[in-house]
Amino acid sequence: MIQILVTGANGQLAQCLKTLTTNLEGYQFYFYSRNDFDISDKAKVEAIFKTKNFSFCINCAAFTNVDTSESNKETSDLINHKAVYNLAVACTQNNVKLIHVSTDFVFDGNQSLPYQETDKTNPLGVYGNSKLLGEKAIQNTLKAHYILRTSWLYSEFGNNFLKTMLRLAETRPEIGVVFDQVGTPTYAVDLAALIISIIQKDNDAFGVYHYSNEGVASWYDFAVAIFNLKNLNTKVLPIRSIQYPTPAKRPSFSVFDKQKVKHTFNVSIPHWRTSLEKCLQNV
Ligand SMILES: NC(=O)c1ccc[n+]([C@@H]2O[C@H](COP(=O)([O-])OP(=O)(O)OC[C@H]3O[C@@H](n4cnc5c(N)ncnc54)[C@H](OP(=O)(O)O)[C@@H]3O)[C@@H](O)[C@H]2O)c1
């Protein structure tokens, strides 16, 4: 039985993994929430890695509040960088392969062509910077790593843009949503399925990979699609980012080139609208 450690069990990605792996034969997944396993606690990291003979660690734990990060640099750095280093060291010492999740926020968004894994990083804020430092800590410590950069993650679990839109629609007849940030929504269940494919292939094709759903959208497009598919009459007003100021600046363009992940793991990626329809059946 292949044993797999999953951190951040109460987060949306980990919950998607849980639903997909319940009956996966040949694999035993161990899910740890922050309460059971704080990844910034070095002694705890060392102890947990000794409890089983893990083959993989999937790091779903992160400090994901992009705006709060701006005024909480230390916490963001602790969880997204220093704790990730702890995991990478433990993986090296225990011969465990690390699957880590990173973000489109490592880029500044100034490019006009889809971002490849080799494109220059230049985070615009504290969160993106902490995530980039986490990536580098892994790359400098552990050969056996898969770093999966993803974007605009949503699902039926946790807090995300989809849930926010549906909540706002209950009380507001119209909602202003930015149209000048373009990227691709990613259904966390699809990302979880990719992670399972990587584990099942186990082909040691280590490195950085870009993964989102297929297609391109603005947040405005995403909101319109949510309300259309839900048959809600909520009106969506296209607004500019400067009309919706946030503590953290976001990349205005973060579409990914996904050739590498598709070829390496032989996966087909659903269009974001197809996956949105699927997700809405569970919300
Ligand atoms: N959400 C997005 O739009 C997005 C976009 C691109 C990339 N990503 C990346 O995708 C990954 C998964 O994101 P997600 O949306 O599933 O995040 P999430 O729902 O915010 O889940 C993160 C989980 O990490 C846990 N956590 C925080 N600090 C921890 C610590 N010190 N030790 C252990 N667990 C800790 C949190 O615990 P609590 O539940 O107790 O807070 C939470 O359950 C993250 O690496 C994120 O950076 C996300």
From TrEMBL:
GO terms, molecular function: dTDP-4-dehydrorhamnose reductase activity
Pfam families linked to this entry: RmlD_sub_bind (PF04321)
CDD domains noted in UniProt: dTDP_HR_like_SDR_e
Domain of life of the source: Bacteria
Family matches, as Gene3D superfamilies: NAD(P)-binding Rossmann-like Domain, UDP-galactose 4-epimerase, domain 1
Regions annotated as coiled coil: none
Assigned EC number: 1.1.1.133
Keywords per UniProt: NADP, Oxidoreductase
A GO CC annotation given for this chain: cytosol
Role noted for this protein: Catalyzes the reduction of dTDP-6-deoxy-L-lyxo-4-hexulose to yield dTDP-L-rhamnose.
Protein name: dTDP-4-dehydrorhamnose reductase
Gene: rfbD
